[in-house]
Amino acid sequence: MVKEINPFLMFVGEAEAAMNFYMSLFADSKIESLSHYGAEGPGPAGTVKQATLIMQGRRFEFFDSPVRHAFSFTPAVSFAVACESAEEVDRLFARLSEGGQALMELGAYPFARRFGWVNDKFGVSWQLRWV
Questions:
Q1: Whether 122 contacts 14, CB under 8 Å
Q2: Cα angle, residue 15 at apex, residues 11 and 19 outer, rounded to 5°
Q3: What does pTM read for this prediction?
Q4: Which of 59, 62, 93, 126 could form a disulfide with 6 if both were Cys (CB 3.0 to 4.6 A apart)?
Q5: Residue-wise pLDDT tens for the chain (131 aa)?
Q6: Rounded to whole angstroms, what are the CA distances from 97 to 30, 66, 107, 116?
């Protein structure tokens, strides 16, 4: 029987920075576990070997790949964030778009009173909505 299914985010040297950034955005976030590669590798010493971040009560797995890949994150998979107000959508959009890229600008859409879609500076895609 499956115990749990969690998003797994693979970075190359930026996993811990991403975790700290997300903790600054979402209240009640916390690192549940964090281990780093040592001098023995296979990843560079100090990068994330395995980590679990709890955001809004959900587990997200983080990892720094010791191997460079020809792929990264894609907007085909994004995190949908239901916000309690238009102001919260605006706040998150502003912070997540710093160094990132807006995919759909903030606005009213037929499916939400306030919505914005952004790739953050790490390439992770976020859809922010107030319905």
A1: yes
A2: 140
A3: 0.93
A4: 59
A5: 999 999 999 999 999 999 999 999 999 999 999 999 999 999 999 999 999 999 999 999 999 999 989 999 999 999 999 999 999 999 999 999 999 999 999 999 999 999 999 999 999 999 999 98
A6: 22, 27, 15, 10
